[in-house]
Amino acid sequence: MLKLLTKYSDVISSYKISKFEHFGKILRFRAELILTDNTILYVRETVLSMSIRKYSYHWQDRRGKLIMRWDNAPDWDVETFPHHVHVGKEDAVEPSFDRTLDQVLNVVRRRLSKINDMPPAKR
Predict the structure, then answer these.
(1) Rounded distance, CA 90 to CA 93, Å?
(2) What is the DSSP string of 15-38?
(3) What pairing do the DSSP bridges indicate for beta strands 93-95 and 12-23?
(4) Distance separating alpha carbons of residues 30 and 39, to the nearest angstrom
(5) SS3 of 115, please?
(6) pLDDT in the model for residue 51
(7) Average of pLDDT values for 57-69?
């Protein structure tokens, strides 16, 4: 996990790991990542077996406004059930696919890169 966080050090300013438990095939990981634009990515991953994995990657601004949240809680009827993404607000749900932290941080990197390429007046 630390290798992954180092891989994205260009977009992660700091991080706090609140839980890391690994027992055989069971893994529980919780972290708060402060990104270079001062937004926050809350990470929750639980692996119960080779085929059972629960995740939530909640990206928000400093005021708590949702930017995006990828998760696989079975609470929305989407074509990619249970995988989905909330975009901008809780009830704006779109299909997604099984995500990993690596994939999410790659999306974050691309979005932050686009923002940084904009003139300051449009940010």
Answers:
(1) 7
(2) EEEEEEEEETTEEEEEEEEEETTS
(3) unpaired
(4) 17
(5) helix
(6) 81
(7) 97
